[in-house]
Amino acid sequence: MKKFKNLIFYIATIGFFSYAIYWIIIFGSRLELGKKINLPVASNSQWTEFKKTLFHNLEHPLAILLIQILTIILVARFFGWFFKKIGQPTVIGEILAGILLGPSLLGLYFPEFSLALFPKESLGNLQFLSQIGLILFMFVIGMELDIKVLKNKANDAVVISHASIIIPFALGMGLAYFVYDSFAPEGTQFISFALFLGIAMSITAFPVLARIIQERGMHKTKLGTVIITCAAADDITAWCILAIVIAIVKAGSFVSALYTIALAALYVIVMLKLVRPFLKRIGDVNAEKTHLTKSIVAIFFIMLIFSAWATEVIGIHALFGAFMAGAIMPENTKFRDIFIEKVEDIALVLLLPLFFVFTGLRTQIGLLNDIYLWKITGVIILVAVAGKFIGSALASRFVGQNWKDSLIIGALMNTRGLMELVVLNIGYDLGILTPEIFAMMVIMALVTTFMTGPALDLIEWTFKKVSKNTIGINEDSVNFKILISFGNSERGRALLRLANSFVKKLNTKAEIATMHLAQTSEIHQFNIKDYEEEIMSPIIDESKLLKQRITPIFKASNDINTDIFEEGNKGGYDLMLIGIGQSIYEGSFLGKVLGFTTSIMSPERLKNKLTGKEKLFDKSHFDERTREILIGANIPVGILIEKKLTKIERVIIPFLTESDVQLVNYFQKLINNAEARITLVDINGYIQSNEELSERLKLISEYVPDHLEVLKEWEIEKKLINTYDLMMVSIESWESLVVEDEEWLNNAPSTLIIKP
């Protein structure tokens, strides 16, 4: 009776109060007597009324805004993914997505749909949301600046940085002299137009530049440090100059702008001398706490909003205030990580794409409908590249850099990206730029950002030298090379213990590389060294414990899965060891219903299916990441399912198919190097029926007695499988076990799945 108690209570409660509601409605209806009640007319027009209400809801400002955001995020993510795949910064794809959703493509070929999706009266909502996104983004940019680097490495970097500003600034003003009559808006002063063209030519995209340096592994080099310092100095200087330019433009002359500049200087002093020490004190007091209270977080966000408000009121734009708020954050790495984590996803994924599309809606490439206008666009691009690329390169060469490094600095400093769009939109809002010149400058921003990667590759190819072996190992003397790719330290330690078991007695005849790839968007310039040390220290400690020499590899990646198998393919490794992940759809009703659909929705898997690398209706038991690595790798891959793997003394290997023969080479290494005891289970009688294999196993048993035994399936209880340290199995046999023999998997210890 007790098990039905809750059910009886539930039925009684729902039934009694439902009955009470019914009688309340009956008695309440009698109160309508003598009152004029407007009832809907029952007719065939009810469906019409429903449709009218539905379309009214679709046209509600909130509904329009939500469908706009949904469309923008989907299109921006797709184009960002595409450009990431071709080795370009995702920001280029997102900018291009905004342009394509604007009048340049969607509005040109599908004007009615464009008008329905982006009605003119809805653009104000998009603009304000995009401005909030920019404020949060600039806050992150300020936090990503490592002020200590500026203090320690500022000598040469400041010379290069300021040369890379003044040269393009002067060229931009010179260009303004020639295009002022044709392209300046009516009533705009020459000084305002010239200053904005100058500052637009001078901008460097610090976040894009920092990520390119991380992805190319340059952050540890002296050159990388110089470039980051140049970009940081450039960012701070350019934003200060932009604030002055905005003040001059709004005031109409430099003299009139002195009041605004004075207020801005006072604001900076207050932020540096009063607010920053206060925030530092908060950071010091809370430095050891694992989590920050909401009150502490609120203080910093209030400071951000107040700083942005103050600079907007002063007249130097809210974005400068957001940038300054980020720059004066406590230098405590944990503090900055917490706030970047809280702000970055919502700013970059949700709100910032709105800015790209809003910029795209303003960019009317169709206005450039004359060959003369495209010639002017070409001149603008040439001036931008000459000023920034050549100016930075010459300045670098002057301070003592060699030609290769000087050209690399020039190519990276020429990257403009999102920061250029921010400046251009400010100029457009102030009425300094016409739609024509705005479109030309947006094209310039795209071209100069797009050319960075190819320019760096061309420079590397031009100055290509025969590389020396940096790890000090004669490749001819290496008998076995293993690459470990790990996502977290504990997984990495387990993989290292496994790899060591294969090569323990080979000493210098073996090489183990331990690789961790970090998503570019998840690490930042100020904390990259701390992050690397945190992730690699446990692996290095484990290698010392095992007395195993390793080659640590750490770098940022824009596409981790691809970089993993490409590193394995090009490194000449004999085996790559990875840990297994988990599919987000595995075991869910949605996964069972939409399994095929979700694979098609993955652009990478769609490409693999269309090219034949993956069967169209193939049902894999691996997650998306592991599947992609298996398809892309041209070397043997070992996938470890780790269950507290501490030692490898007893190994069990089920023999199911012919593919398991390949495992003989691997368990021989375990016997020779780790003195492991191997148990082969001849499940289908394959070993017994294969004379060549049986003879080979017999020879191994004679060479290392007591280290190899062959059992029939009925000779071992499945529940005893977990008494072994490791199960090793081929990928084909693994798939068979998943389908046919779940008990093996339930009782299995840590498992190594080998794909040849």
Main attributes of the structure:
756 residues; alpha/beta; Na+/H+ antiporter like fold; Rossmann fold; 4 domains; 10-stranded mixed beta sheet; 32 helices; 65% helix; 8% strand; globular
Could you explain how this protein is built, in words?
With 756 residues, the protein is α/β, with parallel strands linked by helices. It has four domains: 90-462, Na+/H+ antiporter like fold (Up-down Bundle), CATH 1.20.1530.20; 474-581 and 624-642, Rossmann fold; 591-621, no CATH class; 644-727. The chain is 65% helix and 8% strand. It contains 32 helices and ten strands. A ten-stranded mixed beta sheet has the order 3-2-1-4-5-10-9-6-7-8, sandwiched between helices. Residues 466-477, 582-602 and 614-619 have low confidence and may be disordered.
Q: What is this structure, in a nutshell?
A:
With 756 residues, this protein is of the alpha/beta class. Helices cover 65% and strands 8% of the residues.
